[in-house]
């Protein structure tokens, strides 16, 4: 069972300071993020209308969020009409309870899972385990994380921090049916995972998934994937339970024409991912349950600046271009949502009461590369700055800012302060003492000029 | 208050007074393009699938050649006699499709006549798909417009693959490891 993120101690600066000492991790991340960056740029460059698709994607999501209540009701009606059952969950505990009860009702003690961020967020596997139900992850990277009793570190490729030889070690240690002569060749590792999961797919009676999109108009759910584990879970078991965040909605069938272009190209850097499954209600006799999850999303929706984070389609393009993520890695963020999007989503979903969550809005250089690649144009730097203002600050910092605000608010006060500073300029040290040294450890104290610009201007205007 | 009512009420409060937005749809859609067969064949080949472009009259002979020695599932509604019935021991499946997308090299199955069930097109290791030239559309918007959302849909772009190990693409995980496409012109 993979470990849990909630209640993780520490903060981002401490976590990342440790992570950058790990040269293997930095090598793995650099290699992986640069590969995917190049692939994404290539396939995005192929489309002459990328910016038009991006503008449409942004507007469709904003329109959906504005009318979310209406579209959720429409979705519920369509799914129910097609033979599915819709459940609503205010928070993680309620969602876990609903899913646990549904699994118990089938009498099964094992379920197969399609990779899903929502079920990671609510820590469903742990909740099921408490009731004697074992959840088997079937995505290759999720399997690597689960077998290694590890944390996911990337939205798309949760085991991005592991290289081939580390994966070989995990398989040999933890996968009883792995061949003893297993090499670290990726096709050999992939074949071992295929054989390991094959029987389980064919005999499992219950599957749990998330969804990339839900269409209100038709009640259709959409899952994009690569390996075929998704198709196995979605179509073979007798019961399918999908746990989906309420923001994953699209109003109309036609809207898929935008997102099925934006997502694969931004995410795996392919023209199209190998497999996409779409289903509406109960298909081929399957028992279908949809659990609609809030878990903090309506709080995010209430924030005028922060609500744009709900446009996110979990492509992970922002992680792959982020200079901070590339060096610090995903674990430093202490959340299933790492990287730039995690730095704005986690503090909004969980609040900023823990030291870790309050440190996340500062886990950025505000370079803006994330905004540029975001397929739904989430202005991540804007939200970061807004969250920084809302984050708790030390009393001394608040007092200092108050004084600065008082001075800057009045030009006469500012002029007097500048003249005072000019008189003591010879005595200001290059490195500040005490807690202020945290600032000068990585920055220079600005040079105080002999004369302020205001005074210079005054003198020259008069002359 | 039920969870449903509470979530809906929270949403109502959260978005009260927020402005709605118009959706600009300036992207390409409704295209009638030339050269779709060639583009589709090239893009399918990019995924390391096997592709043939043949006149309709030569397709049956090509199918015979491709499936020789394989226990093939032939779904109801596919114009071919014989076939293997046991999913667990089948080597492959042969299907038609609902629509194909040139720009992305994608085949879409709606699991109607000739296209098999979802399991039939997934469990066997080899998938042979026959695409008629008039089923190929330019891009994703043109395909979405042709599809029926009430049907289960499977979009297939090349063989099963993963990039989970160092982001290197490896073909062949849980879905069919070999995808062969015959484009009938």
UniProtKB/TrEMBL annotation, chain B:
<dbReference type="Pfam" id="PF02589">
    <property type="entry name" value="LUD_dom"/>
</dbReference>
<dbReference type="InterPro" id="IPR037171">
    <property type="entry name" value="NagB/RpiA_transferase-like"/>
</dbReference>
<feature type="domain" description="LUD">
    <location>
        <begin position="86"/>
        <end position="183"/>
    </location>
</feature>
<protein>
    <submittedName>
        <fullName>Lactate utilization protein C</fullName>
    </submittedName>
</protein>
<dbReference type="InterPro" id="IPR024185">
    <property type="entry name" value="FTHF_cligase-like_sf"/>
</dbReference>
<dbReference type="InterPro" id="IPR003741">
    <property type="entry name" value="LUD_dom"/>
</dbReference>
């Amino acid at each position: 069972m993979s470990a849990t993120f909630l209640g993780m101690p520490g903060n981002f600066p401490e976590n990342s300071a440790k992570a950058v000492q790990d040269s293997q991790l930095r090598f793995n991340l650099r290699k992986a993020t640069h590969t995917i960056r190049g692939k994404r740029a290539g396939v995005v460059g192929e489309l002459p209308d990328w910016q038009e698709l991006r503008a449409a994607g942004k507007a469709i999501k904003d329109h959906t969020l504005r009318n979310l209540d209406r579209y959720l009701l429409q979705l519920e009606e369509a799914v129910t009409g097609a033979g599915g059952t819709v459940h609503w969950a205010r928070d993680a505990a309620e969602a876990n309870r609903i899913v646990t009860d549904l699994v118990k009702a089938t009498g099964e003690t094992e379920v197969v899972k399609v990779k899903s961020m929502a079920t990671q967020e609510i820590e469903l596997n742990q909740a099921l385990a408490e009731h004697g139900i074992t959840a088997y992850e079937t995505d290759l990277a999720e399997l690597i994380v689960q077998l290694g009793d590890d944390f996911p570190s990337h939205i798309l490729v949760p085991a991005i921090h592991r290289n081939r030889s580390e994966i070989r070690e995990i398989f040999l240690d933890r996968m009883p049916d792995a061949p003893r002569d297993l090499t670290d060749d990726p096709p050999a590792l992939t074949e071992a995972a295929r054989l390991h999961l094959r029987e389980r797919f064919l005999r499992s009676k219950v599957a749990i998934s998330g969804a990339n999109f839900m269409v209100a108009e038709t009640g259709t759910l959409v899952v994009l994937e690569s390996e075929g584990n998704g198709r196995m879970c979605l179509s073979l078991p007798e019961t399918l339970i999908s746990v989906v965040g309420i923001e994953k909605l699209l109003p109309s069938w036609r809207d898929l024409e935008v997102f099925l272009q934006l997502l694969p190209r931004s995410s795996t850097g392919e023209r199209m991912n190998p497999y996409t499954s779409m289903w509406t209600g109960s298909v081929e006799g399957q028992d279908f349950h949809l659990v609609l999850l809030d878990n903090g999303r309506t709080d995010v929706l209430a924030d005028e600046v922060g609500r744009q984070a709900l446009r996110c389609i979990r492509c992970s393009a922002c992680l792959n271009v982020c200079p901070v993520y590339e060096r610090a890695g995903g674990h430093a963020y202490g959340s299933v949502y790492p990287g730039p999007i995690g730095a704005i989503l986690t503090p909004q979903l969980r609040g900023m009461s823990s030291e870790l969550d309050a440190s996340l809005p500062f886990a950025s250089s505000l370079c803006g590369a994330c905004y540029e690649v975001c397929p739904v144009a989430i202005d991540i730097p804007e939200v970061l700055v807004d969250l920084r203002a809302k984050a708790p600050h030390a009393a001394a910092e608040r007092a200092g800012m108050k004084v600065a605000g008082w001075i800057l608010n009045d030009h006469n006060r500012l002029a007097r302060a500048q003249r005072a500073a000019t008189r003591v300029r010879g005595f200001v040290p290059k490195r500040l003492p005490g807690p202020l040294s945290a600032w000068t450890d990585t920055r220079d104290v600005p040079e105080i000029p002999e004369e302020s610009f205001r005074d210079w201007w005054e003198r020259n205007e008069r002359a | 208050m039920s969870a449903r009512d509470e979530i809906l009420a929270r949403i109502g409060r959260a978005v009260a007074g927020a402005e709605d937005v118009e959706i600009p749809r300036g992207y390409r859609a409704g295209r009638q393009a030339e050269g779709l067969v060639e583009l589709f064949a090239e893009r399918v080949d990019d995924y390391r699938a096997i592709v043939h472009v043949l006149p309709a009259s030569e397709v049956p002979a090509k199918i015979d050649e491709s499936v020789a020695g394989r226990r093939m599932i032939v779904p109801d509604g596919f114009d071919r006699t014989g076939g293997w019935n046991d999913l667990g021991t089948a080597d492959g499946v042969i299907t038609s499709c609902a629509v194909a997308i040139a720009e992305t090299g994608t085949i879409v199955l709606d699991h109607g006549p000739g296209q098999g069930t979802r399991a039939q097109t997934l469990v066997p290791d080899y998938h042979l798909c026959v695409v008629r030239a008039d089923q190929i559309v330019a891009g994703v918007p043109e395909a979405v417009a042709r599809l029926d959302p009430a049907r289960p849909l499977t979009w297939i772009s090349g063989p099963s693959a993963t990039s989970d190990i160092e982001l290197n693409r490896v073909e062949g995980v849980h879905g069919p490891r070999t995808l062969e496409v015959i484009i009938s012109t």
